[in-house]
Structure formats: C-alpha cells, structure tokens
Amino acid sequence: MNIVLLGSPGVGKGTYAEKISKIYSIPQISTGDIFREAIKNETKVGLEAKSYMDKGELVPDEVTIKIVKERLEKDDCKNGFMLDGFPRTIAQADALSEISKIDKVLSFVADDEIIIDRLSGRRVCSECGRIFHVKNIPPKIEGICDICEGKLIQREDDKPESIKKRLDVYKKQTAPLIDYYKEKNILAEIDASKPIEKVDEIISDVRKALEE
Ligand code: AP5
User: Fold this and answer.
1) Is 21 part of a structural domain of the chain?
2) Atom of ligand 1 minimally distant from the CA of 53
3) What's the pLDDT score for residue 212?
4) Is-catalytic flag, 166?
5) 88 is catalytic
6) What SS3 state is found at 189?
7) Against a cut of 0.85, is the pTM above it?
8) CATH number of residue 181's parent domain
9) What pLDDT digit, counting tens, does each position of 67-91 carry?
10) Could you write out the three-class secondary structure of 30-85?
11) Residue 134 reports pLDDT greater than 90
12) Domain assignment present for 188
C-alpha cells in the first residue's frame, strides 16, 4: 500500500507515522527528516535546504522531487511506502503521480490553536529523532530521551517566527492538495485534534480509512 500523510506542520504526522509504519510494515519516508540528516552531514543538499528550512519556507521542488524519486527506487519501498511531508505543492503531487500510484491520502486536521501549542512545546532527540512534547508527551527525565538518553532539543523552525511562516506556507501552497486528492477520490480526512491519550482512536480511524 502506498500512502501519503497530509496535514499542517505540527498536526502529528511524524507521531502517527511511526505507529502506522509498524502496523503495515512499510517504511516512513519523511522529507523533513531526510533534509535534517543532510544538514547534519553537511552535504550540498543539506546546505541548500537549511537556508529555506530555518526561515520556514519550502525547499525548491526540483531538489525535493529528486530526493524522493531516488528514495522510492530503494528495495524497501517495493511492497509499499508512506510519505510524510511530501508532496507539499501541486508540482510535487504531479511529479509523484508519474513516479508511483498512490492508494490513499490521509489528511490530518486540527485547529491552528492546537497546532501552535504542539509545535511550540515539541522537543526532539538530537540522537535518534524521537518526538516528545513538554506537556503532552514529556520524557521521564527532563531534557533527556527515554529511548537512547540523547539530548532533547527544540527545532530551529519551531521558534515563533518560523511557526507563523510555516502555517502561512501550508495554507497557500499545501492545503490546495486536499481538493487535488479529493477529486481523485483517494482522500480520507482524519480528526487529529484528539489529545495524545486518545492517539489509539486516531490510529484506529486511520486503519478504518485504509481498510475500507
Ligand atoms: P517537516 O519535518 O516535514 O515538518 P512539518 O510538516 O512542518 O511537520 P512537523 O514535523 O513540524 O510536524 P508533524 O505533523 O510531523 O508533527 P509531530 O508528530 O512532530 O518539514 C520541515 C521543513 O522541511 C519544511 O518547513 C520545509 O522547509 C522542508 N520540507 C520538508 N518536506 C518538504 C517538501 N515536500 N517540499 C519542500 N520542502 C520540504 O507532532 C508535533 C508535536 O505535537 C510533538 O511534540 C508531538 O509530541 C505532539 N503531538 C502529536 N500528536 C499529538 C496529539 N494527538 N495530542 C497532543 N500532542 C500531540
């Protein structure tokens, strides 16, 4: 099964993707994670991506489409994949339709107020990438990852100025994909406003949408 996760920054795509990936045994492909890894390794793509990401802007389509195409050619995608954060523009969606057939697009929805709270409280492990939240999903020891004991950090683009820009960019450039996929009859809307204690309900809604 080939799945796309669509939704505003901070709606919880990465959090749900980890669970969906385990249930369906398909790789989670996050363009944000690929770029952050490239930045860490100081590659050419990483250096280019950083200048856009820190400002909350999208990395240019040609760069992003190329890395996704290369990633989807890998063996672990033969039995399905889940794209988290791609496509984010109509041009990317058109390019994806030439690369692979998409079975379902899950559109996660929550109000801006909830999104801003989730983004401003998010902390991620600098070693393994595990996602936490200072109130909603706190680590057992403040500032330390429960899994690998790595240091928890705040993403540069989770600072207030970048959050506002990212939400604007989402509304202008990415939200039009909702109608784009509705027209193709492959979009399922998932209520992601439920609190983290009800994450199992969110995942159960995802399973219903994928198995209907
Ligand atoms: P990317 O890394 O994809 O960021 P994003 O889409 O902005 O999404 P986030 O990672 O911010 O949020 P999420 O929805 O995964 O939420 P999470 O699970 O962490 O992209 C970063 C940048 O890379 C972009 O701005 C762009 O520059 C570039 N880029 C990436 N892809 C690109 C593309 N295709 N084209 C061009 N540029 C691209 O959850 C958020 C917080 O909420 C966490 O703290 C979590 O613990 C908490 N939480 C989650 N669910 C719940 C819940 N139900 N209740 C309470 N708390 C919750």
Assistant:
1) yes
2) 27
3) 81
4) yes
5) yes
6) strand
7) yes
8) 3.40.50.300
9) 999 999 999 999 999 999 999 999 9
10) EHHHHHHHHHHCCCHHHHHHHHHHCCCCCCCHHHHHHHHHHHHCCHHHCCCEEEEC
11) yes
12) yes
